[in-house]
Write a structure and sequence with these properties.
Number of helices: 8
Strand order of the largest sheet: 1-2
Structural class: mainly alpha
Radius of gyration: 29 Å
Number of strands: 2
Strand content: 5-15%
Largest sheet: 2 strands, antiparallel
Shape: extended
Order of helices and strands: HHHHHHEEHH
Number of domains: 2
Helix content: 40-55%
């Protein structure tokens, strides 16, 4: 296998951080002006592609995160029971008592504010308002569907570009010919 230059190796490292080739090339030290073309060329080199794949595999091994882990995590998040956040009186449990799945990403924000009654010396706290913002659970279902190719959320994209362009060019050519024929008489 061909050895990579120091800059090519840096490109591989940067590409793992953000797989936008032009940005990885710039961060690796290539000129911003030709970064897009440089990235394309680098990604055509078998040695660079192999280095990227090897680095991805090593990262997956190190972190123990792979497609199975991701799918298992998404499924656990999609099936998490909102009732686990409440006590028997219908009040929120303390956050430390929430199941880990809720503390590790399904709740994106918690806002607690005190409610007061009265004014001056008569003012006293009468309760709390707790607002909890949840992560988008439908998005998790969509990701699961895409991962296992259910296609329940498949997007249909219609491309009319070339056909419509050809028709427009043909009509324009006919108009041009008609105008030229009309002017020659």
């Amino acid at each position: 296998m061909t050895e990579l230059t120091a800059r090519q190796q840096r490109f591989v490292e940067e590409y793992l951080v953000d797989p936008v080739g032009s940005q990885a090339a710039i961060r690796a030290g290539y000129s911003p002006r030709g970064a897009k073309e440089r990235a394309w060329r680098l990604l055509q080199k078998p040695a660079v592609v192999a280095a990227i794949e090897t680095a991805k595999a090593e990262r997956a091994e190190r972190t123990k995160i792979d497609a199975d882990w991701l799918l298992t995590r998404l499924a656990a998040e999609a099936e998490a029971d909102l009732g686990d956040l409440y006590d028997e009186n219908g009040d929120f449990k303390p956050i430390k008592d929430w199941p880990a799945i809720w503390r590790q990403g399904l709740v994106t924000d918690v806002e607690i504010s005190a409610l007061y009654e009265g004014t001056g010396k008569e003012r006293r706290q009468v309760g709390h308002v707790k607002k909890v913002k949840f992560a988008e659970r439908l998005r998790r279902l969509e990701l699961i569907g895409k991962h296992i190719r259910i296609n329940a959320f498949k997007e249909i994209v219609e491309h009319k570009g070339l056909g419509a362009l050809a028709e427009r060019l043909e009509r324009a050519q006919k108009r041009s010919e008609e105008q030229n024929d009309g002017g020659a008489k």
